[in-house]
Design goal:
globular, 191 residues
Length: 191
Amino acid sequence: MEGTEKLQKDLAALEAMAAEMDEYLKNDVLFWPMARRDMPRLTLGGYLMRQHRLLGLRDLLSMQEQDRLHKAINTYHKALEEKVVRFEKRAHEELEARLRQWETYLGEAKQGTGVAYYESAVEPRAMIEALLAQLRVQPYRLQEALPQKLALLDRGLRKIWDPGDFVWPQEWKEAYPKEKYWWLYGHPRKG
C-alpha cells in the first residue's frame, strides 16, 4: 500500500478516534475498542501520531480531506476541554505502557529476533514521541522520569543501530526529519 493510501486510512482512523475521544477520556480503558471494528484501538498516542503525520503531510491530501482533518482536530480539542488532568493522567499511563512495549521490542532486537518487522515495531516509538511532544505543551506537565527512560532506551538502540533508508513510505519523510526521528532511518543490526 502506498503512503498516500495509508494517509487516507490514517484520516479515517483519526476521524473515528476524535469522535470517540470524549467517551474515551471519561473511562479507564487505556486501549479503547472502537465502535468500528475495522479501526485500531483508540489511544492518545495513536491519535497524536496520526495527527502529527497528517498535519505534516497535509499537502498530499485533497482539499476535502484537509477539511475532514481540521474537523477531526476540532472535535478532538472539544473533547479535551476541561479535561487537562484527565488527559495528563491518561497520557502518562500510555507513555509508561508504550515505553514497556518499546523496551520489550528492543530486547528482542538485541537478541536478533524482531529485526525483520522493525517497520511496524517502531510505531510505538512514534507514539511515544507524539505523546511527549503534547505533554511538553502548556498547560500539561510531563513527569521527567519518562523522557529519561526513553533516553536510556535510545542509547541502547544506538549501540545496535545501522543507519539506512527511511523505513516508512517515502512520501512520509517530510513529516519525520532525520535529525529528530533518526530511529526511522535504518534498522537495528541483525544478531
